[in-house]
Each structure stands twice: as C-alpha cells, then as structure tokens.
Amino acid sequence: MTAPKESWTILEILRWTTDYFRDQGVSEPRASAELLLAHTLGVSRLDLYLRYDQPLNRDELGRFKALVVRRRQGEPVAYLTGHREFWSLDFHVTPAVLIPRPETETLVAATLEVAKDFKELGGEIEGKAGEPLQKISPGPPLQSPHLRGLEVGVGSGAVVLALARELPGVSWVGLDLSGAALAVARDNARRHGVLHRVHFLQADLLTAFKPERHFALLVANLPYVPRPVWEELPREIKEFEPEGALLGGDDGLDLIRVLIRQAHRLVRGEGWVLLEVGDGQAPEVAALLEATGAYDRVEMVRDFSGIERVVRARRWGGTG
C-alpha cells in the first residue's frame, strides 16, 4: 500500500483510506473513512460526494490523517467524532459511555408499543400490539406529565432521551453508577430539549428508592455480555468501550438478576418492566420475571435480526 500523497481530492482520499482500512483489518472500512472525513470537513456524508473533486488543504489533511491512525489502532469511530446516531437523533458520546447500538432501538420501540395503552397519555400513541415495531411520532406535549418512567443504566442517555422525546406525557428518572456517564447524558438531554423532564441520579441499581410503586415504565439495558463472549470481543470494543457497561458476569445475567428481584416493588399495577438481553438469554430472563409472581404477562420481542432482544413484563394490578 503506497503512502498518501500531499494533495488529495475528497474522492481520492476516500478511496485510499478505504483500501488502507481494509488492508489493516479495520471493520466497516468505507463507512469509517466517510464518517471520519465528513467529521474533519464539518459536512455530511452526502456532501462528500457532492464535492468529490474538492481538494483538502494541509490542515484538513493533517487532522484527517491523525484520525486515520487512531482508527487503525482500533479506536471506535463514534469516540473519534464524538457522535452517534440513535433513533434518528444525534448523541454526544465519550469513552465514559457505551456506544449506542442499532439493536437497542428495539427497547425503545417495545416500550412505545406498550405505552400506548396508558389512558393518561390520552391516546397520543397509535398502533396495535403485534404490528411491526416502528418509530412513532408523538402528539403535542401535555401541560404536566401524568406518568413516570425509570431507566436503570442510562449511559449516554440514548434510550431515556428517545423515550422522553416520543412520550411528552411522561417524566423520567435516569440512573447510572457512573458520574462521568451521567454528565454525558445530561448534556444530551440539554441538547435535545428534554432536561426539564428527565432527572438524573447516581445510584447502584434501585438502592436509592423506597419500595413504592410509582413508575409506569421501568426500562434497562444493563451489562449482559457473558465472560466467555467478552474474551472474544473485537479489540475496538474490548479495549476502548467501558467494560462495566458490557460485562455481565459469567453468564451475563449478574445485574439483571438483581434488578428483577427489585423491579416489581417500584412498578405500579399494569405498568411494565422492559429489559434488553443478549442472544439466547431471553427465555431465562422471562422465567426469572415469572418466578417473582408479580407479573400477569411476560413477552419476548425480537430485533431486526430475529434475536429475542427485549423481555417485557406487565405488573399485575394487585397490591402485592
């Protein structure tokens, strides 16, 4: 592979970088090259092709080369650019938080699907159970939220903030053990105009709450990667993303088990608990929820790849 020359057009540097990344074993070489170059130039990926014959100046080329070196060493594109799209929203991300994944949009969609049943929302959300999950546009915001939701393990805030945008009649509490992650989440909440409806709290799972059934929705994307899978993860995940946001113990369910033992004490009658899980974990998680005797309905929701990605359970209406 020849070294890059001193003068390059956008198209030339894209082609060279894509080939270079491919030779170096970098994942998604074309997308990586496009995202890094668009970030360097402050334009969209589409603009790269509309301006394909535009030359890069020396400063632009220098900044781009520095990013290429870091990407070759395994650093994820999202950390290099500081941004990741999730639920058609732009989120600021840092190495303090897990990079939002497309499959986690299933957790948002599965939550919206059950939230439409809450009468307090006034029928704002349309759709029928069993229909394909999709993004749902919210109605006009209520003057004061009638419902409360809780996310455990907010990370960048992607899930709770997407839900806050889609459900203007719900106020939220977002928990995380990491103060650095909460700072990122607060910044994203401010950027997306929902900071007034999301209260962030540093806490270890649900230990900060008394066992009172106040929440209509409890969602969580806790660490669920089993240790054997963790050991085999690609370098760009294992060496750069926070281990505490991924590794869930020997079978991946250490924290999920603890949360299931606590969750029903905080969820009101006919409220829902929704948990993102890993491939093959859904049946065991569903059984753990059923074993509490606190739920009258337990369901598994598949993601776009057909994997049972979310387990959700409806709290029965009694007082126990």
Helices and strands, with pairings:
Layout: H1 10-23, H2 29-41, H3 45-50, H4 58-72, H5 77-81, E1 83-86, E2 89-92, H6 105-115, E3 147-152, H7 158-166, E4 170-176, H8 179-191, E5 198-202, E6 215-220, H9 227-231, H10 235-238, H11 254-263, E7 267-276, H12 282-291, E8 295-302, E9 308-315
Parallel strand pairs: 3-4, 3-6, 4-5, 6-7
Antiparallel strand pairs: 1-2, 7-9, 8-9
Helix pairs in contact: 1-2, 2-4, 6-7
Structure report:
With 320 residues, the chain is of the alpha/beta class. It folds into two domains: 10-73, Ubiquitin-associated (UBA) domain (Helicase, Ruva Protein, domain 3, Orthogonal Bundle); 96-315, 3-Layer(aba) Sandwich (Rossmann fold). It is 36% helix and 18% strand. It has twelve helices and nine strands. The protein has helices at residues 10-23, 29-41, 45-50, 58-72, 77-81, 105-115, 158-166, 179-191, 227-231, 235-238, 254-263, 282-291, and strands spanning 83-86, 89-92, 147-152, 170-176, 198-202, 215-220, 267-276, 295-302, 308-315. The strands form two sheets. The chain has a seven-stranded mixed sheet, sandwiched between helices. Helix 2 runs antiparallel to helix 4 (58-72) and helix 6 (105-115) runs parallel beside helix 7 (158-166). The longest helix is centred in the first third of the chain and has 15 residues, at 58-72. The protein is elongated, with a radius of gyration of 22 Å. The termini are far apart. The relative contact order is 0.11. Residues 123-144 have low confidence and may be disordered.
